[in-house]
Amino acid sequence: MGNSALKAHLETAQKTGVFQLTGKGLTEFPEDLQKLTSNLRTIDLSNNKIELLPPLIGKFSFLKSLVLNNNKLTALPEELCKLKKLETLHLNGNHLRQLPAAFGQLSALKTLSLSGNQLRTVPTQLCGLRHLDVVDLSKNQIQNVPDTVGELQAIELNLNQNQISQISVQISHCPRLKVLRLEENCLELSMLPQSILSDSQISLLAVEGNLFEIKKLRELEGYDKLREAKNRTGNGKEGKHSYIWNVQMLQSRFALL
């Protein structure tokens, strides 16, 4: 990309607070962006070839959204954790194996998407994020969900297309978790905590593509209790739409809405 084109993007970003430069083959984070550390609210550098985020990323103190999907990142700098106003972080399709130790300091973070990386476990740092709503860890290499997951504050957790064979019963204790996606993993029915059905806040559970037949799930203790509980929540204005049975889908998946 020529200097004149980059300059034009910088001028636009200075006015709008949004810097978007996607699919341009960039191999480095544009250093000229440091001129806009007090202006930018959104940075989108998706679909490039960036391998490293420089420490200067920590200087964007007003940044609310950072999108770096489909790059070549293998690690994140600790300085990223200084972004106290960051609400949205999308890092899909990189090569990340872990998160910085101080990741839990991103106190404003609401949406985190790490699909298609190389994570082997659910990062414990996420449990310190009190405003986190949505976490996408699909398409990684996660094999088990540890006890620390019980402290996760998220409303939705996507663990589809991993290698999960074990889940801690503590997942039932997540105080706000409503949606749990576990499709296409390596779960035996005996490894799925029954407390998810009988003693949790979860109202949508997706488990298609594991090592058991969906009809066996309906035989578990707590299944009817969960169904009745979700029906009772349908007395408001959402009414009948708060709990949906789709017989055709139940042949291949379990979903409670």
Give an overview in words.
There is one protein chain. Helix content is 14%, strand content 12%. It is built from 5 helices and 11 strands. The protein has helices spanning 3-16, 195-198, 214-217, 223-232, 247-250; strands spanning 18-20, 42-44, 65-67, 88-90, 111-113, 134-136, 144-145, 156-158, 166-167, 179-181, 204-206. It has a 9-stranded parallel beta sheet. Strand 10, helix 2 (195-198) and strand 11 form a beta-alpha-beta unit.
Defining key terms:
257 residues; alpha/beta; nine-stranded parallel sheet; two-stranded parallel ribbon; elongated
Q: Compute the separation of the termini in Å.
A: 48 Å
Q: Beta-strand percentage?
A: 5-15%
Q: State the strand order across the main sheet.
A: 1-2-3-4-5-6-8-10-11
Say what oligomer this is. Answer: single chain
* Structural Rg: 21 Å
- Strand segment count: 11
Low-pLDDT regions: 233-257
Helical stretch count? 5
Give the SSE string.
HEEEEEEEEEEHEHHH
Helix content: 10-25%
Helix-strand makeup class: alpha/beta
Average the pLDDT over all residues and give the rounded result: 88
| Largest beta-sheet characterization | 9 strands, parallel
